[in-house]
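To fix ideas, we now present one chain and its tokenised fold:
***
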Amino acid sequence: MVYASKEAAGNPKSTTSHAKVEQSSELLSEAVADLTELLEKAGGDAGLISAMVDEIVKAQGRLRQVMEREPDKNFSDYQTRTFQSAKTVAKHVQEMALQGVNAPETLSAISRSLTTAYSQLVDSARGALATIEGEEVAKRLQQTAHSLGDACVNVVYTSADVQMNPGDQAVKRELGDHAKSVTEKVSYVVAAIQAGAVGTQACNEAIATIQSIVGDLETTAMFCTAGALNPEGKVGSFPEHRVNILETAKQLVEDTKRLVSSAAGSQEQLAEAAQKAVKTITNEADYVKLGAASLTSEDMEAQLLLLTAVKDVAASLGNLIGSTRQASGKSVQDPSMERLKASAKGMVAKVSTMLKTVKNVEDEAGRGVRSLENTIDSIEADLIEYASDRPAKVEAGPEDLIRSTKGITLASAKAVAAGNSGKQVDVSACANLGRKAVSELLDTCKAAALGADNEADRTRAMSAGRDCATAFKSLLELIHQIILKPSADKKAKLPAFSKEVANGVGEVVQAAEVLKGEGWVDTKDPNIIAETELLQAAASIEAAAKKLSELRPRRTAAADESLNFEEQILEAAKNIASATSALVRSATAAQRELVAQGKLSSAPRSEDSQWSEGLVSAAKLVAAATSNLCESANLVVMGQAKEDKLITAAKAVASSTAQLLISCQVKADARSENNRRLQMAGAAVKKATETLVKAAQQASANAIEDEPFMKPKVKGKVMEGFRKELEMQEEIAKKMRELERAKEHLTKIRRERAGH
């Protein structure tokens, strides 16, 4: 601009110079505008960064201020809040590290969110500090939370540098390093808050263990229903096992009292009570399974009575531990204390029922009455669960709800027949069938109601399900009275009570039709699809087995026992893959036999297509479980996973096998050759999985440290969902092992300190 002006020199005739002056003037104006915009942006960002840093520093200062405890809050509540805030901080900082490379312009907004999350974490941590037990733990939490704030300040400053210099790779690497530091500090905060809640943590672990026990008992019950629960080797007689079962049941009552009292005690007392209760219920479940096996499949009803009784006790204990966790540290007037008392009463009632069942399980004369009583109690518990705000256990739609009413209709018909005959075997059969039917109806109804378009439709569906279950419970109570004191007047009431159940079923069906709404399409599922899916499952299993047969155990420099174990893994896994392949082929043959005999309809909308759907799902689960087992065996042999992954996969194979056996048993001829081969194949799978689990558990007990699990990619919705569930179970098992080693290390440190 200066040179152009000098050249023009104010000469009006120098038109060429005038154009240069004008061009230079425009360029100068644009440059000044760009500089002004840049300075304004830098000043604004600097002010924003300073404000965020000031907020973090002020939050750090609040950590040193004493906070008054809220009357309706305890340490567990603040712990949950702190966990959530810590998770949010980690999420934002990971996003910053990613966007620092891909979209630096978004870092300011993410930094703002990170600052807010840290401030919330501090407020939650202050509440935890006000309710925590132990000065040492409180000091540790305060220090780790303050250190996290320093790390957050660094990452906020570095994010500003990245925005100012988006092409500077060194600054981006520095942002990544600071982000890793924040993630590390978050883990320290989580560890500190967990150290202050050993009781709460123990309750969480206890509930997870009990859920695993319940699942194992359900799998055992499936084998029992399929007639495959028989003793292997010398298991002794039932009277021998009865002594252990009764003694352990009495110990459960003492554990219940200890849990209730621990709610008003320290975290250490709560942890000790929860751990003791879990150990007792684990032993009880093992004793009952041995006792049930000693009865053999010839007395299937007695086996189911025992397994159902101990499963109810385990589920009730899980609810009790959850109630104790919520009530811990709260006042006597708090509503959670009332829930704790109710859970304790329910636990004692379940134990008493189990004691009666164990004492009289071999008495066929009163077996039906006990089954009725257990079923009535179970329906009452299901109705309480149904009315609670807990999420649905399954995912279901309107058509699933309509299908679930079929079980109620069948159970109602059997109940009326049992009431008229008065035979214990009929009463026991209708009770077991009704228990399962009502549970399935309520679970399905609650899940289907969530998909309602409006609140009125949802309320109608929930009310219909509750009324139907209540009507069926009333029918069972009438039958119970008839069995105890039979009379013509009571039997005359059976048609009226049965009609109430039928009306309830009709209301459920109508509510389901309303839930469908407009434009709902019913998917067709004929029996030919069942055979196709079974063949595909068999092909999938055979392919996995072929891949497994090509594996070889890794070689180590020293010849030790680990080499033998790896060979044992491969051999056992091959046996399981081979057995499941034979099982699915047997199921295919059984399905073809039923179609040939005319026991199944080929109509797409027939009721038999529902059976085919269950068979397809069961076959897919077997294929998914077997494929996952082969992958797990490969990872363990290659040293890329621990034995926990293999144990979980093997148990999943056993569970899915039991479901396939039951699906095939629904319409099968018990005396046919195909059914006999099916039972033999199922028993082979069960035996092979138990062998592999025992071997893996023995090796797992000698393991020193865990390595991260590799997550293989799997195609298909069924296998993907199945894999996610297994990975979560593996992670739980891994964390529990780490916890045990940490406890042992802590005990060692305390002993060494005491020695000095």
Remarks:
- Residues 520-531, 551-563, 602-611, 704-718 have pLDDT under 50 and may be disordered.
- The domain at 15-195 is CATH 1.20.1420.10 (A middle domain of Talin 1).
- The first helix runs from residue 2 to 8.
- The chain is about 80% helix and 0% strand.
